[in-house]
Amino acid sequence: MVRLDNGLTDLSLSVSQVEIALRDYAYSPQFGLEKLRLALLSMPKNTDLNTSNNAYHDRFSSFLDAVDGLLASGSPYSEYYHTAFFSAADALFQVAIGSQFGLDRMLQLDHLLSLERSCWVAILPLSDDKTRSPMYVDYEARLVEVSASTDPISVDVYLEALSSSGRVSFQLDAIKGAFLEGRFLLASVQSLSWLQARFPLLQWQQAFGNNEEESLKELCKLNFLPLFQNVSLKRDYRYRLLGLSEDRLKTLFYQMFGSLFPSDLFNVEQRDRFVPASQNVIPFEYDAGVAYFPIRHGGSVYVGSESIKGDGQKLSYLACLGHDFLSYFLYEIDTSFGRFVFDEAECLGAYVVSEKDLFVLGGDLWLGVEGAVKAQVVLDMPFLSSNDTAYCILPRYIAQVLVVKQGELYFAVPYSTLDKIEGVCSRMPAPHSWVKNIWLNPQNIPLLEPCLVNIDEPSLEYGWPEENKPTHPSKNGYYLGRVCGRMFCVKAELVSALLPYQSPFSLTFFDGGERNLASFIINDGYCFDKVVSKIFLDGLLSMSHEVPGFSVILECLGESVVLPFTTCDWRTSLPSGEYVREFSLPPKLIGGDDEMSHYSSMQDDIIVIDKKNYLSFVAGVWPSSSLA
Predict the structure, then answer these.
(1) Where would I find the beta strands (DSSP E) of 445-544?
(2) Which pLDDT does position 131 carry in this prediction?
(3) Are 341 and 360 within 8 A, CB to CB?
(4) Beta-strand (E) ranges in 107-214?
């Protein structure tokens, strides 16, 4: 950091104070930021700067506001901001000293105050957001065999040191002679990597939530979507209530993406993005040749990875962090496929283009934007429009594109109209390669976000990290109903919801070059994409023109199915008679006629679905299921 002046003004004390404060910031963040704030406030007293230099005063105020913003956020340590603060302070000192040598010298130093410098790029957004609440994360630090009398680092010393990083307590597990064993419980805004580096003798991990915390999280998740979709509330009141809810829920259940990685790992993108706080992330090894970033797929957020070398390696998911249930702003666009949405935070922007802006590379059409950014023009998608027309746009007809980033790649999606809306991401049973997310607007209408990147197929196996947990009380008996002309008797414990009939949403998509039809319904923010219908059962069960009256959602062992009941009745036990049989898969036959004859022999039987044969039923109706 600059230390010289011309002797007219002595800034050596201010320089020294700022350097010491920034050194302390890495060691004790709150103490260092408080010292830095005092050092900055004392600078004007020692600076005889030409008051006409408005840029200097603006940057100085932004620097001070950024420090206040971090203090208001609980003083989290960030290597990104630490580096920016060093660079910004050096720039201010150089300009302050150079100003004493006349106008020409000041003009030579103007570039130090340019908004394009990385330090001001980092500081200015932070200075604009001074109202963020501290984002506390619960940690456990295990203390093993620490002497209660002779060891120089006693429990009391640790408590005092940890208290500067958050709310701390010590839980004694055992006393073994002269040694103590126990755990420090710490609620802190600091990252796990910072705590591990600062207190290396303790065994750190993120604390697992207790049942009360899990119940609170589930309650908040169940409440957020109804609040988001309650358009009957007054507009100002609704937005104020949503804003307060989002701020509090981020504090309780979200974390910075960068907290999952060491602070010195430079190939981590979007470190400051809020992602669900996960307590059971599968450990993985860090690779300097791989870029890490958060990516939302199927309503859940994953740790995505992709080779920095650009060697064509597919996008891979390393861990699932959990369901992202908050609301976000989306761009909704009209294309020749239909209407789609993309998360505003994952879009570079909308651009007006002409044929001369496009170029061909490797047989694909590309667009150069924002300097070195190259975006592949999207000329096909996994979806078809309602009239099944092929998506083929000649370059001279491309006038407007939305540039979207998925993984490490940019895509330019041609569109005719664009709107900005809000949406909440529905949760899907498992991620698919053709749809990235299905969003819900305030009217509960589903909005499709296409998947434009190639994903490593094994990554799609993550899906829900846990089995479905029934939220309904224990049920006895059976539900008896007619499905597409056949009688089904379903064990009541499998029924998660019994709803008035919902006509499923249908779309045509391509997967692995094959054309497929998908149907799904939305209930309580969840997307159920295994919907039994006559289309699925044609040739397998009897044809029927009956109108369904109920949508019955079955959930068990991580699989969800929706049955369209024409009629519905509840029985305490199975109907008696020889015509009742459990569902079973047809024998593995080659000819379709043999398969038809197998089901024809069951035409007069009532098909029973229970826990024993549930997965067989799912695999029988959806042979492409992972269970098949």
Answers:
(1) 446-450, 478-483, 486-491, 495-500, 505-511, 514-523, 526-528
(2) 55
(3) no
(4) 137-147, 166-176, 179-188, 203-206
Instruction: Report the pLDDT value the prediction gives residue 46, as an integer from 0 to 100.
Output: 59
Unique residue bearing structure tokens 């993309």: 342
Segment-wise mean pLDDT, segments of 10 residues, the chain, 628 residues: 50 86 91 91 68 79 90 87 91 84 75 87 76 77 61 75 87 72 87 88 76 76 92 91 91 88 86 84 78 93 86 79 94 89 94 88 87 87 55 70 92 94 92 90 94 79 48 73 86 92 85 77 91 58 69 87 91 73 51 40 71 84 52
Residue 517's SS3 state is: strand
* 585 φ, ψ (degrees, to nearest 5): -65, 145
Q: How far apart are the C-alpha atoms of 185 and 139, rounded to whole Å?
A: 6
Domain ranges for the chain, please list them.
Answer: 11-128, 137-209, 214-323, 328-450, 478-621
pLDDT tens-digit readout, 510-539: 766 677 788 899 999 999 988 887 554 544
Consecutive H or E run containing 296: strand 290-297
User: What phi and psi values does residue 582 have, to the nearest 5 degrees?
Assistant: -75, 150
How deeply is 411 buried, as exposed, middle or buried, from its count of CB atoms within 10 A (0-12, 13-18, 19+)? Answer: buried
DSSP state of 574: P
Residue pair 170/148 in contact (Cβ under 8 Å)? The answer is: no
Give CA separation, 531 vs 237, 561, 584, 595, in Å: 38, 6, 19, 22
**pLDDT of the residue at 307:** 86
Check: CB of residue 47 under 8 Å from CB of residue 6. Answer: no
Each residue of 270-324: pLDDT tens digit? 998 999 987 666 667 788 888 999 999 999 999 999 888 766 668 888 888 989 9
CB atoms within 10 A of CB 618: 22
Placement of tokens 């839980």 in the chain: 171
Report residue 350 as tokens. Answer: 């909308």
Mind listing the pLDDT tens digit for each residue in 585-621?
554 433 344 443 333 344 557 888 988 888 888 887 7
Q: How far apart are alpha carbons 195 and 197 in whole angstroms? A: 5
357 neighbors 367 (Cβ within 8 angstroms)? yes
Residues of the chain by 3-state class (helix, strand, coil), percent to 5: 30, 30, 35
